[in-house]
Amino acid sequence: MTSNLKTLAAGSLMLAASAGANPLFTDQYRTADPAALVHDGTVYLYTGHDEAKDNKGFFKMNDWLVFSSTDMVNWQRHGPRLSVTDFSWAKGDAWASQAIEKDGKFYWYITARHKDDKPGFAIGVAVGDSPLGPFKDARGSALITNDMTTDTPNDWDDIDPSVFIDDDGQAYLFWGNTKPRYAKLKANMTELDGPIEPLDLPDFTEAIWVHKKGELYYLSYASDFPEKIVYATSSSIKGPWQYRGILNEVAGNSPTNHQAIIEFKGKDYFIYHTGAAQPDGGEFRRSVAIDRLYYNPDGTLKRVVMTSE
Ligand code: FUB
């Protein structure tokens, strides 16, 4: 992490925590693309950072933020903990990410636009000794590049990593825009272990999140555009995945939607972003919100009721 970021992070840690009505943060940050990690009785929320001045142009995203809470109501702001400039191979666009713990280390998988030697979006991974870092590029090169998976002219193929560790300790990386894919990760969490496999998911756009509840695996994703979050289930992390329908409708005036699903202290949560929750919010000025998630007795999910609308 750069020294500038360290200073910012330390400064923002001093800010008072606030109550957790939707959207979560209405002060200094526009937040998007949430991912959450439960560790040692605390939820760590990793988000993108929308810095666009209005909703007319495109995303302006340069770094990733971290927040934490022990009660899902009061959130501590830890500021930017990773930036595109921490990846020597990247040139911009700090898009969706997810962090996970393995053997006492914390791996933060991120999306960024690769420099011109390998044009297109790429996925990288940073590593740290705590959920708050400090984090550094774990490889010095991207883990997934567009030239590894270039089966369409879409240079956004390789975005939105979701990492999952199965009960036997095997880690998997899922990702994709338009073409969903997954691959095994080696025990070091920084290299692929085997081929990249396609996934068969109807109307897939992006934003995969994989989790397990009981014996069932869940793969949720953004579908169509404007995006709804839909989901599929399987009895194996390798599929086949059975499509189960809509979990969350289009969120406010944001055509993108992006979710994280966690269980924390006996309750289930659906974490997402919306453009509607703040007066000048919208497509490129999004805000993270959290609502409860409820499972039916047969393992299917009830549709999320958005209190951010
Ligand atoms: O925030 C930039 C991109 O928009 C993300 O990578 C997608 O999931 C969508 O939210």
| Helix-strand sequence | HEEEEEEEEEEEEEEEEEEE
Outline the biggest β-sheet: 4 strands, antiparallel
Strand content: 35-45%
Mean pLDDT: 92
User: Shape, please?
Assistant: globular
Sheet with most strands: strand arrangement: 1-2-3-4
- For the terminal residues, how far apart are their CA atoms? 36 Å
Helix run count: 1
Overall radius of gyration: 18 Å
Low-confidence spans = 1-19
Q: Please state the structural category.
A: mainly beta
Give a count of the beta strands, DSSP E runs of length 2 or more: 19
Helix proportion of residues, in percent? under 10%
Bound ions, cofactors and other small molecules, one mention each: beta-L-arabinofuranose
Active site: 33, 206
Keywords: Carbohydrate metabolism, Glycosidase, Hydrolase, Polysaccharide degradation, Signal, Xylan degradation
Pfam families: Glyco_hydro_43 (PF04616)
Protein name: Glycoside hydrolase family protein
List descriptors.
single chain; 309 residues; mainly beta; four-stranded antiparallel sheet; 19 strands; 4% helix; binds beta-L-arabinofuranose; hydrolase; carbohydrate metabolism; Glycoside hydrolase family protein; glycosidase; signal
Write the layout of secondary structure elements.
Blueprint: H1 3-13, E1 31-39, E2 42-49, E3 63-69, E4 76-83, E5 90-102, E6 105-114, E7 121-128, E8 136-137, E9 162-165, E10 171-175, E11 181-185, E12 197-198, E13 204-213, E14 216-223, E15 228-234, E16 242-248, E17 260-264, E18 267-274, E19 287-292
The protein binds beta-L-arabinofuranose (FUB).
Pfam family, one: Glyco_hydro_43
Active site: 33 (proton acceptor), 206 (proton donor)
Site (Important for catalytic activity, responsible for pKa modulation of the active site Glu and correct orientation of both the proton donor and substrate): 160
